[in-house]
Amino acid sequence: MEKTATTIDFPLRTPGEPFPPPVYDDYRGRAGLTLSHLPNGKQVWLVTRHEDVRAVLTNPKISSNPMHPNFPNINETIGVPRQDQIPGWFVGLDSPEHDRFRKALIPEFTVRKIRDLRPAIERTVDDCLDALLAAGSPADLVADFALPVPSLVISSLLGVPPVDREFFESRTRTLVDIRSSTDQERDTATRELLRYINRLIAIKQSWPGDDLISRLLATGAIDPEELSGVLSLLLIAGHETTANNIALGVVTLLQLPEWISDDRVIEEVLRFHSVADLVSLRVAVEDVEIAGQLVKAGEGIVPLVAAANYDEKVFACPHEFNPARTTRQHVAFGYGIHQCLGQNLVRVELEIAYRKLFERVPTLRLATPVEELPFKYDGVLFGVHSLPVEW
Questions:
Q1: Domain containing 246 — which CATH number?
Q2: Is 353 part of a structural domain of the chain?
Q3: pLDDT reported for residue 26
Q4: Residue 2 in domain
Q5: Domain of 23?
Q6: Which residues in the chain land under pLDDT 50?
């Protein structure tokens, strides 16, 4: 990669620093792109403007497949796995290979399908609140609410026994930890998760039920060997990102209670917190121009989702939490063919979780100052490790 600009350290989150990192504002103000290097030394182009991020995520000359040389994974265990590592991890595929998986999964996440799931999601939220209130104040809202709600929902959807929820939650925590988990620990967690999922698939093959795994097996659209990768992706994405959004949204709404009952908070929570900032990794497979910068074939690209969602040319006063803003063009769920399949489910989970939480626990308040909360500066996904509350 030619050094046409000063190379800066990759902007990993810094404890005590606001999120998104303030340097994102500086990067957006620079001409062209920002040249950076990952912790492993690989050089990458950072893309920070909203228009440019969307262009990268839809350009056929830019690939999400880690099989290409110089794909910007941090290392072998952090980033997008190759198909020879985890077959079926379809976010690491381009069209037309990617399209086969998405076509098979779309019917499970339509607006109508998720609407049919609303009563079950409502029961799950109520059950978690029943347990929270029965245990009494104080509580950790992450462990007691924000995490179990989406974990139980995705478990039910996939046909994972609820008693196994802690198993895949613990493995996911290891996998998304950038700083504390070792390569060996992440590799072990991956193998244990896949081993568990393969056993579950075998059970569903013999005793099918009314769940996503059984339905996918019945269609035959995805091979059982690939299905394990598909399910591990859905399990991780289906609970970790939603849990982070629930918890961070509660923190924000407790500070700005005038928005608690506003139906418009969901989209603003998604934009404002942009928990999947570092997820969309890409590599150029042909020479391509982005924002006036020539990116050569084989050069890595990191579209920073949070930077795009704070682009002042698209979102007026982006650092202000304002659900009344008219612009809804955030890229919290990505953009293009890899846009999050589960976004309809996430929106419904957030809406039900916020509504019921504040209705049933109207005196809810933080038990720790915001600046002392243990934010996930060490994770692939942003969030908060724990959320002490009382009522």
A1: 1.10.630.10
A2: yes
A3: 93
A4: no
A5: 8-390
A6: 1-4
The first and second tokens of residue 292, run together, are 């006036």
Q: Determine if the peptide bond prior to 96 is cis (ω within 30°).
A: yes
CA distance 163 to 170: 13
Question: Cα(316)–Cα(310) distance, rounded to whole angstroms?
Answer: 9
**Per-residue model confidence as pLDDT tens digits over 354-374:** 999 999 999 999 999 999 999
72-to-53, 117, 255 alpha-carbon distances in Å: 16, 37, 37
Q: Is residue 3 part of a domain?
A: no
CB burial string 262-287: b at 16+ within 10 A, e below:
eeebbbbbbbbbbbbbbbbbbbbbee
pLDDT tens-digit series, residues 56-88: 999 999 999 999 989 998 766 567 888 888 888
* Strand pairing class (300-303; 43-47): parallel
* Number of residues assigned to the chain: 391
Rg (CA), the chain: 21
Q: State both tokens at 94.
A: 């381009």
Q: What is the pTM of this model?
A: 0.92
Question: Dihedral through CA 61, CA 65, CA 71, CA 77, nearest 10?
Answer: 160
pLDDT at position 191 is: 87
pLDDT of residue 1: 47
Residue 60 confidence (pLDDT) = 96
Is residue 1 included in any domain, yes or no? no
- For helices 224-255 and 343-360, the axis angle rounded to 10 degrees is 40
* Helix residue spans in 71-141 (DSSP H): 97-105, 111-135, 141
For the chain, the domain total comes to 1
Residue 2's pLDDT is: 45
Element (H, E) at 267: helix 265-273
pLDDT value at residue 3: 43
